[in-house]
Amino acid sequence: IDFTGSNGRPDDPNSLHYLGRDGSVAENQYIQTIQAVGSIVQDYDYDKMFPCLGFGARIPPQMEVSHEFSITFDPANPFCAGVEGILAAYRRCVKAVQLYGPTNFSPVIQHVARFAEAYRSMPSNYFILLIITDGIITDLEETVRSIVRAGDLPMSIIIVGVGEE
């Protein structure tokens, strides 16, 4: 999930990460995409436990920029239970991070590729990387190299653009 500054401040109703005010819940485009794609993909996963990553934000506790972090903030347990678990972790994450940048895809592609490589000999394992983003890829050349290197691995990459850019 893209947590770069180009999404706009989450407390601004025009932000792509806007969650609502005073207890109201806004269904922003990230939430809509997670629900739409997640509701289809989850039926292909036997335990419905999904590791979820974010990129492009300053993350707690040191508030250092990260281009590959678990949205649960627990690298040892990045898993979310079903679509509802993903949405709950996403909402907590939006409130905890500082949107920053740049929009680098290669770190998350390489992260998932390492898992796909490790499980290559187990044909029942297949990985789907869903990247939800609003922006122009900053590390385009490295992203292309990462995709090419992952080309023979048991994984697919789906990129969904949100916003109007």
Task: Describe the model.
The chain has 165 residues and is of the alpha+beta class. 31% of the residues lie in helices and 19% in strands. The strands form four sheets. A three-stranded antiparallel beta sheet has the order 4-3-7, covered by helices on one side. The protein has a two-stranded antiparallel ribbon with strand order 1-6. A two-stranded antiparallel ribbon has the order 2-5. Helix 4 (140-149) links the parallel strand 8 (127-133) and strand 9. Helix 1 runs antiparallel to helix 2 and helix 3 (106-118) runs parallel beside helix 4 (140-149). The longest helix is centred in the middle third of the chain and has 15 residues, at 82-96.
Brief summary:
The protein is an alpha+beta fold. It has helices at 29-41, 82-96, 106-118, 140-149; strands spanning 49-51, 53-54, 57-59, 64-66, 69-70, 79-81, 98-99, 127-133, 155-161.
